[in-house]
Every structure is written in structure tokens, then in C-alpha cells.
């Protein structure tokens, strides 16, 4: 099964891919998935199969994501031992990962950490194990705490639509909001036109946009109810219009 970014970005194609995979799994088939390189251009490539695997795990609400690597897991450089359990990918954990220096490889441990982060946010455990070991998958499923590095899911489970918004949909533009609007969004409110300061990109009604504050910090994304042209006309106006409904918005955690 060959997939492209557009299969994840467009909601209808995303659901079609989900239903196809679920139908194959019900038939007890094992889908073999890869990026469709023949039609993917540089700006819409996944970049690595680790990220693709995490998005597919998210798509089908998998029980676990197992990444087969050429190392046993995430190595702590101070002790030279494998870290067995990670419940939060902190800056110190990220520093332990180094990009692969192999000419035939894309990514390395950094991309695996990015994939693990997607899985954790989606409430899916992620396990990085040494794929060269005999019976690697059997060991991973029978003894996940000793097979490699186990990334434990976050406490909060995102609704399916919001998982799609934050992980799969690519923003078509940016909307800058004031501090009052930012606080309202962080509190679970909708975005109103009065709080919009500026915008960029040529987006249409129904597109996904990134939401930034006045310091250019990205903190949310959502599905807009106005095109860029129309939003430009009403931004900052006291006659408040709903730019993004709270159900179509997700805040970065």
C-alpha cells in the first residue's frame, strides 16, 4: 500500500486509507506500507519511514508501534546502557539521540524519537528494538520492558479528529493572535476575529492553519471558517466572527 502526505492531509483520503487498512486487517492480511516516491515531491515527502509508521499507527489506532532498528534502543551515553522506559521526551532525552551517519539511511534515532512522540500523544506505546536479533518481534511482544526502549503513552488521549489535525494535516497558512486570544484558546475557547493580529499564506475556507502568538511561537492549529482574503477584512474588528471553532482546533502540548 503506497501512501503520500496528501493521503493524510486531506480528511476524506485519510478516512479512506483508514477504512482500507481496517478492512485488510479484518481479513487477517498484513498490509505492507511505503511512501509513494513516484508521485511525492520534496515538499510533501514524509522524510523517513519512522514518521510514516507512527502516522499509520495513529491512523488505525494500533495497540503498539514497534520500530526495528540496528541498535537495541535509546542509549544513555553517560552509562552506555539502554534506557528501558521513557514516559516523557524531554530535551535531555532528545540530546541522547544522534542522526544516522549512514549514507543509505534517513534520520536515525532522532526520527525514531519523533515517531515515538507521535505515538505517545496518540496513546500508543512505542518500542524501539534491535531488528537484527532472532525473534525480535516475539521478544518485543512478550517482554517489552527488556526488549529495547519502551515509550509510555501520555495520560491524555486525543480525539481522532484532533489527532488528525495535529499530526497529519499540513497547515496552508499562519494566523497570528494577541495574548487575550491565545489565553482563550489555551482555555478551550474558539478563535474570534477580534483576536487576530495578522496572517500569512493563501488559504481557503476549510483549510488547516497554524496559530502563532505575537512572539511567533506556534501553539495551536485549526480549521478556518474564512479564506485569507476574507479574514484580512475582519481581523481585529470588534464585530466578532468565529474564525475557528474549538472543536476544529487543537493546542500543542
Structural notes for this entry:
- This protein has two domains: 2-161, 3-Layer(aba) Sandwich (Carbamate kinase); 171-251, Roll (Archaeosine Trna-guanine Transglycosylase, Chain: A, domain 4).
- The chain has 253 residues and is an alpha/beta fold.
- The radius of gyration is 20 Å and the shape is globular.
- The protein has ten helices and 15 strands.
- Helix content is 34%, strand content 21%.
- 31% of the residues are buried.
- The two termini are 32 Å apart.
- Mean pLDDT is 86; it is low at 102-106.
- Helix 3 runs parallel beside helix 5.
Low-confidence stretches: 102-106
CATH architecture of the largest domain: 3-Layer(aba) Sandwich
Distance between the termini: 32 Å
User: What's the level 1 CATH class of the largest domain?
Assistant: Alpha Beta
Rg result: 20 Å
Q: How would you sum up the major sheet?
A: 5 strands, mixed
Net shape: globular
- Order of helices and strands, N to C? EHHEHEEEEHHEHHEHEHEEEEHEE
**What count of structural domains?**
2
Helix content: 25-40%
Number of helices: 10
- Could you report the average pLDDT, rounded to the nearest whole number? 86
Quickly describe the structure.
This protein has 253 residues and is α/β, with parallel strands linked by helices.
Question: Key features?
Answer:
single chain, 253 residues, alpha/beta, Carbamate kinase, Archaeosine Trna-guanine Transglycosylase, Chain: A, domain 4, 4-stranded mixed beta sheet, 10 helices, 15 strands, 21% strand, globular
Amino acid at each position: 500500500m503506497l501512501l503520500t502526505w496528501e493521503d493524510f492531509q486531506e480528511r476524506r483520503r485519510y478516512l479512506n486509507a483508514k477504512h482500507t487498512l481496517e478492512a485488510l486487517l479484518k481479513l487477517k492480511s498484513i498490509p505492507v506500507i511505503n511512501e509513494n516516491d513516484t508521485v511525492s515531491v520534496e515538499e510533501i515527502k514524509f522524510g523517513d519511514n519512522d514518521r510514516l509508521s507512527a502516522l499509520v499507527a495513529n491512523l488505525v489506532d494500533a495497540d503498539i508501534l514497534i520500530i526495528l532498528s540496528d541498535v537495541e534502543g535509546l542509549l544513555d551515553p553517560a552509562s552506555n546502557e539502554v534506557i528501558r522506559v521513557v514516559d516523557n521526551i524531554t530535551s535531555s532525552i532528545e540530546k541522547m539521540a544522534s542522526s544516522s551517519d549512514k549514507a543509505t539511511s534517513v534520520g536515525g534515532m532522532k526520527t525514531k524519537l519523533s515517531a515515538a512522540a507521535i505515538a505517545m500523544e496518540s496513546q500508543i506505546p512505542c518500542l524501539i528494538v534491535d531488528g537484527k536479533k532472532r525473534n525480535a518481534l516475539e521478544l518485543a511482544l512478550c517482554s517489552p520492558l527488556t526488549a529495547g526502549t519502551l515509550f509510555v503513552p501520555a495520560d491524555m488521549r486525543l480525539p481522532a479528529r484532533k489527532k488528525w489535525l495535529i499530526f497529519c494535516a499540513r497547515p496552508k497558512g499562519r494566523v497570528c493572535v494577541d495574548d487575550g486570544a491565545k489565553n482563550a484558546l489555551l482555555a478551550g475557547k474558539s478563535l474570534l476575529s477580534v483576536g487576530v493580529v495578522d496572517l500569512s499564506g493563501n488559504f481557503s475556507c476549510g483549510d488547516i492553519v497554524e496559530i502563532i502568538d505575537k512572539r511567533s511561537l506556534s501553539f495551536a492549529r485549526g480549521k478556518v471558517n474564512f479564506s485569507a482574503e476574507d479574514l484580512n477584512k475582519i481581523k481585529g474588528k470588534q464585530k466578532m466572527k468565529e474564525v475557528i471553532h474549538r472543536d476544529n482546533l487543537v493546542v500543542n502540548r
